[in-house]
Design goal:
single chain, 723 residues, alpha/beta, Rossmann fold, Arc Repressor Mutant, subunit A, 5 domains, 28 helices, 24 strands
């Protein structure tokens, strides 16, 4: 058999991974080392060379876009269709399994997926119904607790309250939330994973069926798996399955949402005899950039260890700019961008990365003033927009009348005379009778409401019934269009005469287009509408990445993972901001911040600028910081330091401070001072110089005293002693 097409254009390490024997394999794939290529070619190798049936493969990625690309590339490589191959995200595959086994999972056949926003709204309604003070019990924190417990595989009955009243109350909220979801046939994202794990764990025959079917498990971005995802994989693999996982412990940056880098280290213990391959050849960046990344990440202790290299160019030095404040930093970045664009480069080839979203404001102002088009990557996504969620709520209610989340969203939108008091009566009835809001509405409209209110409720319910009745047999896009028309949402948004209203109407038209281009899976057993609604919930948040235009890209370091740009600016590298203040004292937290820095550095292909500011106004506070320790971890031979034209000394890296001669302590006395200098004052005690401005007799310094706080002092009268 000719295996040349599958193995051509692979380097030695990639070829070793692709042709690995049928045993558990751990592929440590460095940034830009071609991990997707390895996964695609591994699948093709198994099918075409090893004779494995495509039905025996299960491939897991972390985005729907990546899953579609993998499927397309496998088909191209093999020149055969593989549409029935199970390739998808953890959530997508779990959803697929639950749709097939809804009875075993204890779910209604037409269960609905709720996204994070709908989940939060449901929790707020729950608290309101329980008459709980939401300033004492913050809905977001309850949502975080519930999802965190689900990610660990825990139901309310499994959680130890540790004899703490607050924890006991959170568990009670979790229990009440579960009851509401079960009653309405609602499934949140975390529930998809937990329920899919439980349905296999608790059904021996079903588990054995899938273990026999999926002999080969291919997993991308393995370092980002959380506890329940890894437990699901281990359960599916059993003793005979062959997991082939690809990941990079140096790019594990999602600990805050449950990802566990230690799964990479556990894998070899859980699957004895694991075949390990390291992909270290980088096809993205210059050697200088890779040397910097290698040097920074080498300061982390708990890692598998690898050294990125390239057979490409050495490349230019990394430029480090020490700004006076955030506006000086923005001016520098804008200036370099102007030069880049003037040289004929595309704006979309440049990215500005930052640790916190709050940093983007000053940068955006600078870009606007410079008339440089830009785009904040990861802004509000299509399926998350209010008007889209309104239309989807109507569609969901036509499919499932017991969907309380959708009912409450649209019961009075557009306004139809159903007030807050009427809605609260429905909630009370639903709680008291353990029924859905829809059934409660019908009951109180018959017995408890006055004529006008009852008529409004009945009119709404008749509208939904009419939508369901008149769309039977229609094509999916016609069904969506008809429901939007009957909802009068378009007329409602037309009343907003500005651009905002027009945009919302355009988005509703785009929803119809999305339905028209949607291709239902013939293997699915649910209706095209239910499949589309599930697709909308699962796909939310990924369409944004496709909307590339020729404009500068702004994004957080986290959002940049998986992307690459010829020109990259990493802004705000200051201790306390990056690494973040809350991570500095925590070894695990600091190592994750360092991995995030490694991710940022390796986004750059040709040119990398790193900037920091001595003074930064953020969240309404002036902060005075030292350069990030990550800057000092880059070897001197790989950097070029750029100094701004200001008079204040700025300590940087390991170089001696530049001093300014300033009158201190009286006429004729000149002593060198610098930011960060420790001083003593007879009245205020010991302190540190934070800022300095002016010259001669008008020169003054800002000092942070240990006991007296921050003071501005005129140097010629302060009589400060240098320490």
């Amino acid at each position: 058999m000719d295996v040349t097409p599958i193995l051509e254009n692979l380097n030695d390490a990639q070829r070793q991974a692709v042709t690995a024997p049928s045993e558990p394999a751990l592929i440590i794939a460095g940034a830009g080392s071609g991990k997707t290529r390895v996964l695609v070619h591994r699948a093709a190798w198994l099918i075409d060379v090893e004779g494995v049936s495509p039905q025996s493969l299960l491939a897991v990625t972390f985005t729907n876009k990546a899953a579609a690309q993998m499927r397309s590339r496998i088909e191209t490589l093999l020149n055969v269709p593989v549409q029935h191959l199970w390739i998808g995200t953890f959530h997508g595959l779990a959803h697929r399994m639950l749709r097939r086994h809804w009875r075993e999972a204890g779910l209604p056949q037409n269960f609905q997926i709720i996204d994070s926003d709908d989940q939060l709204r449901l929790i707020k309604r729950l608290l309101k119904g329980l008459e709980v003070d939401d300033s004492r019990w913050v809905p977001k924190e309850i949502q975080w607790f519930i999802n965190g417990q689900k990610d660990e595989g825990l139901r309310p009955k499994h959680i130890d309250d540790e004899n703490e009243p607050d924890r006991r109350q959170l568990i009670s909220f979790y229990q009440s939330y579960e009851e509401i979801c079960q009653r309405g046939g609602l499934v949140d994202f975390a529930e998809l994973l937990l329920r899919a794990h439980e349905v296999l764990r608790d059904n021996t025959e079903l588990l054995e069926h899938y273990r026999r079917r999926f002999q080969h498990l291919l997993v991308d971005e393995f370092q980002d798996t959380n506890a329940i995802q890894y437990a699901w994989l281990r359960l599916l693999a059993g003793d005979k399955g062959v997991p082939f996982v690809v990941g990079d412990d140096d790019q594990s940056i999602y600990r805050w949402r449950g990802a566990r880098v230690e799964h990479i280290h556990r894998f070899q213990k859980d699957f004895p005899g694991t075949h390990v391959v390291k992909l270290e050849q980088n096809y993205r960046s210059t050697q200088t950039i890779l040397n910097a990344a290698n040097a920074v990440i080498s300061n982390n202790g708990s890692r598998m260890g690898k050294n990125l290299w390239t057979d490409g160019t050495e490349g230019e030095a990394i430029k480090i700019y020490s700004a006076y404040n955030e506006r000086d930093e923005a001016d520098f970045v804008i200036g370099r961008l102007r030069d880049w664009i003037a040289q004929g480069h595309a704006r979309a080839d440049a990215a500005i990365l930052y640790r916190s979203n709050a940093q983007s404001r000053v940068l955006e102002e600078g870009l606007i003033n410079a008339r440089i088009p830009y785009r904040v990557y990861g802004g509000l996504r299509f399926f998350e927009r209010a008007e889209i969620k309104d239309a989807l709520a109507y569609l969901r209610l036509t499919s499932n009348r017991d969907d309380d989340s959708s009912f409450e969203r649209i019961v009075n939108k557009p306004t139809r005379g159903i007030g807050a008091r009427t809605v609260e009566m429905m909630r009370s009835y639903a709680r008291a009778n353990a029924c859905s809001m829809w059934r409660a509405a019908g009951a109180i409209a018959s017995d408890d409401l006055n004529g006008r209110a009852a008529n409004a409720v009945n009119t709404f319910m008749s509208l939904v019934e009419r939508m369901a009745r008149e769309t039977v047999g229609l094509e999916l896009h016609d069904k969506v269009d008809h429901v939007i028309h009957l909802s009068t949402l378009v007329d409602f948004f037309k009343k907003d005469k500005g651009e905002k209203g027009e945009t919302r109407i355009e988005n509703l038209a785009e929803l119809v287009s999305a339905a028209k281009s949607f291709e239902p899976d013939p293997a699915e057993e649910m209706s095209p509408l239910d499949e589309f609604l599930s697709h909308a919930a699962l796909e939310a948040g990924e369409g944004q990445a496709d909307a590339w235009e020729d404009c500068v890209q702004l994004m957080t370091m986290h959002s940049a993972k998986g992307l690459e740009f010829p020109l990259v600016f990493m802004c705000g590298l200051e201790d306390g901001l990056f690494p973040h203040q809350r991570s500095v004292a925590d070894v695990n937290g600091l190592e994750e911040e360092r991995r995030l820095c490694y991710v940022g550095i390796t986004r750059a292909m040709q040119t990398l600028y790193i900037t920091h500011a001595e003074q930064r106004r953020l969240h309404g506070m002036d902060n005075f910081s030292q350069p990030s320790r990550f800057i000092a971890e880059i070897p001197n031979e790989h950097v070029e330091e750029i100094r701004p034209r200001v008079q204040v000394a700025r300590p940087m890296r390991s170089a001696p401070p530049v001093q300014r001669r300033t009158a201190i302590g009286g006429a004729g006395s000149e002593i060198g001072i610098r930011l960060g200098q420790r001083v003593h004052h007879k009245k205020f005690g010991d302190g540190v110089i934070l800022n300095c401005e002016g010259q001669g007799a008008h020169a003054r310094v800002e000092v942070n005293f240990e006991s007296a706080g921050t003071k501005w002092l005129v140097l010629s009268y302060a009589n400060l002693d240098l320490m």
